[in-house]
Amino acid sequence: MLGDAKVFATGDVLPPFFHQIYFWDARAEDALGRDGHPRVGNDLIPDTGFPRRMWAGGQLEFHAPLKAGISAERTSYCEAVTRKSGRRGPFALIRLRHEMRQSDELCITEWQDLVFRPETDPDITAPEPPQSARNETCSQTVRFSTTSLFRYSALTFNGHRIHYDVDYAKAVEGYSGLVVHGPLLAQLLMLFAETRLGQLSAFQFRATAPLMHFESAELCACGTDLWVRGPDGRQCMTARAETQSI
Question: What is the pTM of this model?
Answer without folding.
Answer: 0.94
